[in-house]
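Page 47, continued from p. 46.
Same chain as before, 105 aa.
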Amino acid sequence: MVLSLFRRDKLYKPSEQIADYTIEKTIGEGRFGICYQVSQDQNSYILKQLKRGMLKRAGVKVRFEEEILRSLQHKSVPRFIKKIERKDTSMAMYLNSRKVKRSRT
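Result:
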């Protein structure tokens, strides 16, 4: 709880807009970033917000992940759609391998 007061990365809340996408909910947070379920035109996607600190330390790995996911085409692997660059962070948009249930708020 106290650590969240010192968070340097912006945590987006449901109904906030990122580019043309609406945040539906936060899915989870890990070492490299924060994942959100987002929607656009009745379609659901996964948005991975890359943490700034990890971008600096692991920039090559992040670009490598993007290249690998762009080249893979398998039903069990999320498909990379596009990269969203913002002043405060970098984000990657994925089409989830399974249908994401829309949250009801």
